[in-house]
Amino acid sequence: MSNSAQIGVTGLAVMGRNLARNFARNGYTVALHNRTAARTHALVEEFGHEGDFVATETAKEFVDALERPRRLMIMVKAGEPTDAVIQEFAPLLEPGDMIIDGGNAHFEDTRRRERDLRGQGIHFVGTGVSGGEEGALNGPSIMPGGSKESYTSLGPMLEKISAKAPDGSPCVTHCGPDGAGHFVKMVHNGIEYADMQLIGEAYQLLRDVAGYSPAQIADIFRTWNTGRLDSYLIEITAEVLSHVDAATGKPFVDVVQDRAEQKGTGRWTVQIALDLGVPVSGIAEAVFARSLSGHADLRAASRELAGPKAKPLGESEAGAFADRVEQALYASKIVSYTQGFHEISAGSDQYDWDIDLGAISAIWRGGCIIRAAFLDRIRAAYDARPDLPSLLSDETFAQEIAAAQDDWREVLVAATRQGVPAPGFSAALAYYDALRADRLPAALTQGQRDFFGAHTYRRVDREGSFHTLWGGDRSEVEA
Q1: Per-residue pLDDT tens digits for 1-45
Q2: Helix or strand or coil: residue 273?
Q3: Who contacts 462 (Cβ-Cβ below 8 Å, separation ≥6)?
Q4: How far is CA 373 from the centre of its chain?
Q5: Catalytically annotated residue among 50, 61, 133, 192
Q6: Fewer beta carbons under 10 A from the terminal one: N or C of the chain?
Q7: Is residue 31 exposed (0-12), middle (13-18) or buried (19+ Cβ within 10 Å)?
Q8: Which residues neighbour 39 within 8 Å (Cβ) at sequence distance 6 or greater?
Q9: pLDDT tens, position by position, 355-414
């Protein structure tokens, strides 16, 4: 078999199939491979008119179809299936070839695989791909890691198939070495969890407190989507809320069980943030909210607990309340991105990745699930100040938060009084207030730790670590 294909894709479920078609549509010859050969031939039969495909049935045929340096993209389930595919193909490759993992792999697995394959002279490129099946076909946001050498060869191809930002820039950048790409994709998904939770809370408040119907809330979201909240998630929220179930004639959201599932990347974001010591409370609340929604028996047993029942506002009050919810949603959204970029920065420092936060915000402007108009402003903030400690330190965002905070607080007062849970909004505001506080109760916490465990403490008036002898005269000794 001639080595004519510029890239190969193995694993032809929806994402793999659509990425293969995307490459072919953009003029590349694509070698195809799947554990079940029938799926390979079905793709060629149905979509062969879209470009040049080379159907293969064995691993050797697949590798032989690729030009050097070989670019082999894996689109299978994360974990053991990915390791199995690597073990199958790596012995057939030569130094300089590359394996590209386009799945949602844990970045530590990517670091391990990159290290192992590097010893064989093979480049392993852990690549985050966001945009779902539609993005895979028409242009996703792509977050590759790996060596700079591999990006020199692979980058132009990824740039061609990627989504394009409003200014025409390709939504792809080399994130950094080894696991950097999958780390960035993980945090992207964590921000996505938080964004969706905040939107859900806004919907619940507009429905239970303001008294709007799903169709009316859809119209509100459409209006918001013409302003600073312009984003893919706000856009599709309006579509979901306006949809009517054909079987019952009820709003679609009223016939769907209120149990949100998750695949794990949100949990990883929170777990790794804990390891790095980075507070991502908004993302954590979104993950926990999904978990809580799934505990049907616990929720059923708790429905008669004491507490207020929401009483819808009058028409004039409802309109003003909706405006306040928009402010709260926007402010909380800024906090979610602030926490996510903090985690990326901390991960970059921990693993020596040198991730460009401005470049990351730029590639999220198109193709991905969290694409939003205000990412242009985030990019500008980091381009102007690469050492920006927080998005909240940017003058423009700080001014917007200042303008929003009274409404933000009023929304949470209303939520509390009416008994409507708003953990995302609450966590975002608590984070904001903790950052701006002169003193935190952590001083008391550290005193307690010294009392029961002699963990020592630091003083505000002199250097060093100290311990108080709590059981005796309570004198202080330097540790």
Answers
A1: 567 899 999 999 999 999 999 999 999 999 999 999 999 999 999
A2: helix
A3: none
A4: 16
A5: 192
A6: C
A7: buried
A8: 12, 17
A9: 999 999 999 999 999 999 999 999 999 999 999 999 999 999 999 999 999 999 999 999
Tell me how far apart the terminal alpha carbons of the chain are, to the nearest angstrom: 72
C-beta of residue 208 within 8 angstroms of C-beta of residue 217: no
Q: At what angle do helices 232-242 and 180-208 cross, to 10 degrees?
A: 40
Inter-residue contact 390 to 381 (CB < 8 Å): no
Q: In what order do the strands lie in the sheet with 465-468?
A: 457-458, 465-468, 476-478
Rounded to an integer, the average pLDDT of 260-278 is 93
- At position 76, the amino acid (one-letter code) is V
User: Does 185 participate in catalysis according to the annotation?
Assistant: yes
Which residue is listed with tokens 């049935």?
57
Helix axes 14-25, 148-161, angle to 10 degrees: 80
Distance CA 42, CA 65 (A): 19
Question: Mean pLDDT over residues 165-171, rounded?
Answer: 95
- Residue 46 and residue 14: Cα distance in Å, rounded? 14
State the DSSP H helix or E strand holding residue 225, giving kind and residue range, or none if neither: none
463 token code pair: 């250097």
Angle CA(176)–CA(74)–CA(2) in degrees, nearest 5? 110
- Chain-centroid distance of CA 327 in Å reads 22
- Contact between 366 and 163 under an 8 Å Cβ cutoff? The reply is yes
- In degrees, rounded to 5, the angle at the alpha carbon of residue 334 between the alpha carbons of residues 332 and 335 is 65
170: closest CA among 26, 315, 269? 26
SS3 assignment, position 30: strand
Cα 13 to the center of its chain, rounded Å: 22
Q: What is the pTM of this model?
A: 0.95
Q: What's the whole-number mean pLDDT along residues 271-285?
A: 97
Pick the catalytic residue from 185, 201, 285, 343. 185
CB atoms within 10 A of CB 179: 28
